[in-house]
Amino acid sequence: MWNLSFTPPELIEARVLTRLPDVLRRPQRSDWSDANKPGHIVDCFLEGPSFDRAGNLYVTDIPHGRIFRIDPALEWQLVAEYDGWPNGTALHADGSLWIADYRCGLLRLDPSTGQVSTVLGHRNSESFKGVNDLTFDAQGHCYFTDQGQSGLHDPTGRVYRLRDNGQLDLLLNNAPSPNGIALSPDGRVLFVAVTRGNAVWRAPLLPDGSLSKMGAFQTFFGTSGPDGMAVDVEGRLVVAHASLGGAFVLNARGEVTHFVRSPTGSTVTNLAYRPGTHQIVMTESATGTLLMADLPASGAPLYSG
User: Fold this and answer.
1) Most CB contacts within 10 A, which of 131, 155, 200, 302?
2) Can you name the CATH fold of 21-226?
3) Which of 39-43, 219-223, 267-271 has the lowest mean pLDDT?
C-alpha cells in the first residue's frame, strides 16, 4: 500500500538532460568496480549532483576519482581528479564543494582551482567505514553518513554531525547501510536512506542536537534500495531508488504521492533541485546520464544560499 487514498502514485516521466561525453569515459577496470561491480568494466558511475549559485552542476565519478562541472549550456569540464572515490557532494556557503569520499572521508574542493583538501579524514584516529553522502543545516553543521559495506548482515553503519566549531557527534551507529541524508525544511527532523534495509528512517532532532525515537518512515523493495534524497519547500521528501528505476516523492506522512520514472536505466542514485525551481536533476549512474523532471514544488533553500 503506497498511500491511504488507495490510489496509484502520480507518474512523472523524467527526460534526459545530458550524458557524460564518450571522450570523458574510461572503459577500464578499477578497484572500485572490482569490489562493487565484479566482472564489469565501469567507464563511469556518476553521483553527487549539486548546483552552485551560477547554475553550474557538479557531479562525481566514483571509480575514477573525478569531479565534473556542467555549465548551463551543458558543457562538461573536468574540475578535479585525485586518488579517491568521491560520492555525495554539497555546496558550502563559502562557495567550496564538500565531498563525501568513501576512501578519504570528508573533503573540500575549491572550484576555482580544482584543489582538494581534507576536512575530516578519521574519527579519533580510527578510519571511517566509507563515507557516502552529506548535507548542511542552516547553521552550517554538516551531517554525513558512514556506510562502508554495512547491511542487514552487519548493521553498524553510522551517521555523524560535524559542527561548524569542529566538534564531531556520533548520532547513529546501527544502520544497515546508511546512504542518502536530508533534513526537513525547519531542520527539526533528520531522514536517512538505509539502502540495504530498503527503508527511509526518520528521527526528530532534539534541542540539544541528539536524535529521538528513530523509526521507519517508508519501506521499499528491490535488489538495492533508497539512495540520495532532497526536500521541497512544502516538506516533501524525494527519494532516489538505486534499483527501481526512478525516485519516489513522499508527503509528510510518508505516503508515496508521485513516482519519477527514468527513461534510461534503473540505477537512479542521487538527485538535487535546481535552486529556486520545481526542477530536479537525477543521476542514472549505470549509463552516466543526468535526468531532469518537474516536481510539485520548489526545492527547500540550501545552506549554500
Assistant:
1) 131
2) Neuraminidase (2.120.10)
3) 39-43
DSSP-derived secondary structure letter, 40: -
Residues 299/232, Cβ–Cβ less than 8 Å: yes
> Strand 289-294 and strand 279-284: pairing?
antiparallel
Distance CA 55, CA 79 (A): 16
Sheet holding 15-19, edge to edge: 15-19, 289-294, 279-284, 268-273
Q: Under DSSP, is residue 36 helix (H, G, I), strand (E, B) or coil?
A: helix
**Nearest CA among 72, 96, 100 for reference residue 270:** 100
Residue whose C-alpha is closest to residue 228's, from 241, 217, 215: 241
Q: Give domain limits for the chain.
A: 21-226
Report the alpha-carbon distance of residue 234 to residue 68 in Å, rounded: 31
CA distance 204 to 230: 17
Average pLDDT of the chain to the nearest whole number: 96
188 phi and psi, to 5 degrees?
-100, -10
Q: Which SS3 state, helix, strand or coil, does residue 24 take?
A: helix
Cα gap 249→251, rounded to integer Å = 7
Distance CA 221, CA 211 (A): 26
What integer is the mean pLDDT of 213-220? Answer: 97
Q: In this structure, what DSSP letter does residue 188 have?
A: -
Question: What are the residue ranges of helices labelled H in 17-99?
Answer: 31-36
What is residue 3's predicted lDDT score, i.e. its pLDDT?
86
Note the helical H segments in the chain.
31-36
pLDDT in tens, 144-171: 999 999 999 999 999 999 999 999 999 9
pTM above 0.85, yes or no: yes
Which residues make Cβ contacts (< 8 Å) with residue 243, sequence separation at least 6?
Answer: 222, 223, 224, 225, 266, 267
Residue with cell 526545492: 299
